[in-house]
Design goal:
312 residues, alpha+beta, 4-stranded mixed beta sheet, 4 strands, elongated
């Protein structure tokens, strides 16, 4: 029986401070406009602007959480947390999604309450503050754009700013329509549309975060294809107890038991081939591989993925 453990550090760990700096800058911009929007909503009486301010508040909270999580996730592992602090970014993304859901639910409730008796709205103040919010959102999106696909925490922050950018566009449109026609019902309508647009995206982010927290297989990994690839490796005749999970957005890990052919006399060479294959074919650089001459008892346990992968 042989056991191998591979763990390599890669370029995605370098320059970890760049996302942190971008998050800090986006947070500063958001807080400035948040104050302006709250004051503007109070002066103008606009629910659409208030909805934008509510989303701006969740933006600020989300960015603050994301910033804290990004810093915490860079801490090294210790005796109490042997996997380090990578999960903080996933917890932050889940909390951001919950904040978005709550804010959207409140705006929808308020829009329904105002639908049949909309209050007076000062469209000029509403327009000026919404334009300021739009410019800030565009700047925040530019700051967060490059890291949104590689980091679930940054994706959550980017989604917050993106949704608020659309909210600002909606508020601008509502202010122009109200100023030109006096149709006050446009204000709660735009607020409701903003809330409805955000809800499914917040739900998707929450599901993605929960998937990571439940040790789900990363979305870009096809576990059955990975098993077939391992079975096709020279010297391997069986695969069991295969698990692939991630601690954060990119830290993918794998553990597996491999049953060797009787002809294998240099297990260490097989280990190196398997680890190189996992890295080149699936981008998995942290792997724990156990080699066996015959399948161990874990091969038929319920938690063992595709126990039928063994040769009979």
């Amino acid at each position: 029986m042989g056991h191998g453990h591979g763990h390599h550090h890669h370029s995605h760990d370098h320059g970890a401070g760049a996302p942190t700096r971008r998050l800090a800058m986006a947070l500063g911009l958001t807080c400035v406009v948040l104050v302006a929007e709250v004051v503007g909503a109070w002066i103008s009486g606009s629910l659409a602007l208030l909805s934008d301010a509510a989303h701006m508040f969740t933006d600020a909270a989300a960015l603050a959480i994301a910033l804290s999580a990004a810093r915490l996730s860079q801490r090294p592992a210790d005796a109490r947390r042997s996997f380090g602090y990578h999960r903080f970014e996933i917890l932050a993304a889940a909390l951001n999604a919950v904040l978005l859901l709550l804010a959207s639910a409140y705006i929808l409730f308020e829009a329904a309450s105002r639908a049949f008796d909309p209050p007076r709205v000062e469209s000029n103040a509403m327009l000026a503050v919404a334009v300021l919010g739009l410019l800030t959102n565009l700047a925040g999106m530019w700051l967060l754009y490059s890291g949104r696909e590689q980091n679930l925490n940054l994706r959550g922050a980017y989604l917050e700013v993106w949704s608020d950018m659309l909210g600002s566009v909606g508020v601008i449109a509502a202010a122009l329509v109200i100023g030109a026609t006096g149709w006050l019902w446009v204000d709660p309508l735009v607020a409701a549309l903003i809330g409805l647009w955000v809800l499914p995206r917040a739900w998707h982010l929450l599901r993605a975060s929960a998937h990571v927290l439940l040790e789900g297989t990363p979305e870009h990994i096809d576990l059955q294809a990975l098993e077939r690839d391992l079975l096709a490796t020279a010297g391997v005749r069986g695969v069991h107890d295969l698990h692939v999970w991630s601690l954060g957005s990119r830290s993918v890990s794998l553990s597996v038991h491999l049953v060797m052919h009787e002809s294998v006399d240099r297990p260490e060479e097989l280990l190196e081939r398997v680890r190189a294959q996992l890295a080149s074919h699936f981008g998995i650089h942290h792997s724990t591989v156990q080699l066996e001459r015959r399948a161990c008892d874990q091969a038929h346990l319920p938690h063992s993925f595709e126990a039928g992968g063994h040769a009979h």
